Amino acid sequence: MIIKAIISDFDGTLVDTFEANYQAYKKAFGLCGLHITREDYLSCFGLRFDAFMERMKVQDDIVRNIIRKEKARLYPECFDLLVPNRSLIDFIKKVKLSGVKTAIASTAQIGNLMNVLNYLSLAEMFDGIIAGKDVQNGKPNPEIYLKAMEQLGVLPEETLIFEDTEVGLQAAEASGANYVKVTGVFFDDENPHKCL
Q1: Which of 14, 25, 99, 174 has the most CB atoms less than 10 A away?
Q2: Residues 115 and 66 reside in one and the same domain
Q3: What's the maximum distance between 2 C-alpha atoms anywhere in the chain?
Q4: Any residues with CB less than 8 A from the CB of 173 and at least 6 apart, and which?
Q5: What is the Cα–Cα distance from 153 to 134, expressed in whole angstroms?
Q6: Domain shared by 120 and 72, yes or no
Q7: Domain of 63?
Q8: pLDDT tens digits for 5-23?
Q9: What is the pLDDT of residues 44-69, one digit of tens each?
Q10: Are strands 159-163 and 178-181 parallel, antiparallel or unpaired?
Q11: What span, in angstroms and rounded, lies between the C-alpha atoms of 29 and 80?
C-alpha cells in the first residue's frame, strides 16, 4: 500500500479548538440571554451548527442566527486558547515535502476554519480544504472524506485519515480509507494540554 494523500479533520485533531470555541459560544449565548455549560458544549463538540442548536434546544431562527454571527465575531478574540497538534502538523509538513497530497476535511464553517489556519500560519500546508458548506451530510456520513479524495485525485486505499471523534472515525472507516485515531496530549511549545 502506497499512501498518496493525508486528510486531517480539524477541530480536536489538527488543532484543539475546544476552549476557544466554548468561550466564544458562551459569550454568544449570553448575548441572547442563554447559558451553556462546558459539559453542554462537550456533549455537542463536533456536531454541525444546526444539530448543535437542536441539542441545545435553541429553536428560534432569529436567535440561532444571532448566536452564529456573534460566535463568528467573538471567535478570533479567543485564538490565544488554541492548541496546535505540533506532532501531527510536523508529520504532515514532512510527508508533503515528499510529494504526498494533503487536505483538511472539516464540517466547520469555512470562515472560522480559514481564520484559524491563517492565525496559525497553516493554510499553505494543504492542497485542499473541504468545509461544511461543501457537503450535504455531516459525519458519520463519509461524504466529506470522499469529496476530499476526489479533489486530491486519490483512491481510498491510497489515503490516510486522521480523526479524533467517534462520528469522524465512523466516517473515515465508511470512506474505505486507512485512518488513525488522534488521542493523548497536544504540545504547544512547552505547554501540555489534554485533548478533549
Answers
A1: 14
A2: no
A3: 54
A4: 179
A5: 17
A6: no
A7: 18-80
A8: 999 999 989 999 999 999 9
A9: 877 788 989 999 999 999 999 999 99
A10: parallel
A11: 20
